[in-house]
Fold this protein.
Amino acid sequence: MFEKIQPAPPDAILGLTEAFNADANPRKINLGVGVYKDANGQTPVLDSVKAAERRLLESEKSKNYMPIDGSPKYAGLVQGLLFGNKGEAVASGRSATLHTPGGTGALRVTGDYLRANHGQITIHMSDPTWPNHPQIFEAAGLKVATYPYFDPATNGLKLDEMLKALDKVPAGDAVLLHGCCHNPTGVDLPPEVWKQVAGILAKRGALPVIDFAYQGFADGLQQDAQCLEAFVTGGSDFMVCSSFSKNFGLYNERVGALTLVASNKERAAAVLSQAKRVVRANYSNPPAHGASIVTTILEDAALRRQWEEEVKQMRDRINHMRSLFVDTLKAKGVRKDMSFIARQRGMFSFSGLTKAQVDKLRTEHAVYVVGSGRISVAGMTDANMDALCGAIARVMG
Ligand code: LMR
């Protein structure tokens, strides 16, 4: 049966981690995968998470199955993070949340739900986007298209082209947007543009799907959630795919959520029931531990304060690395203006490094960067900055 099977190519991002792990060079630097590193180059378990786990160890009484859509308490807390506890989308009951295995799980449930209930529609995504986005939605059987987004000439947004393209999206299609900390470019939509986009998609009759994997990493937990406001007030149906890998550091617990907002409570319940069907036929019900940690932290005032402070520390460290990176590149003699990196947000920036330069960084300097030139700023530290910028200066000539 397996005689004709050829090996698959390595994953653009996680395949790079495999190569990094296998590299024996003690000075190797990983700017590939989007994983937060502290000042010591470690990916820490947050103190608030450790404290919650200690409580759970004492209080947990059963490892019984979770409901297909996870616990209602978790769902309510996730909605509070997205819309505020008193938000209309919550109070009206027109939103529903499923606990999913990570943000990727939420995206795949979205894709499966759309394919099963809306037919073989097209989902439009930014050019460029996270390489897993097209894979996930194609695997679910949807068609994939792109809309203009990043402008390499300005390292900013192709605003007019993007709005024009969105204004042509056929009714019934879906449009994938990055809530904040756009992956891979670090270029986000300004608040007034979110309003324009929400207005255009409502007018077109297209479904906004917001990938919200970095809440808290741009400007703050509440500030980052402002992007959802335009959709709530615009009254359109939409979906939000949350990940708690980054802001809770719960990468390997696989904890995320899919939140859908419909025109009323009855429609929300109907969509939720269809999403539960696709979950049951896939992973049946979600893994409990990560969501129990998130629940324990969010419902305890002291733990929640501690967690919010830890999110702030991660955000501040990344932003500090952004400016240090720009300054150190300059000090190393890089003449190209790289100041745009300090203006971008989140874990990633498009460095403008070519494929040849990326290859050279890896083979000659053991610096690992995704082939597109995306760098994970979260992998930089005070200790590796000098060597990193020296290597980049050399490959940039
Ligand atoms: C990334 O883009 O590096 C992260 O979202 C991790 C992943 O799964 O690719």
Observations:
- The CA atoms of residues 149 and 159 lie 7 Å apart.
- Residues 13, 33-34, 130, 132, 183 surround (2S)-2-hydroxybutanedioic acid (CB under 6 Å).
- The chain has two domains: 14-45+307-396, 65-299.
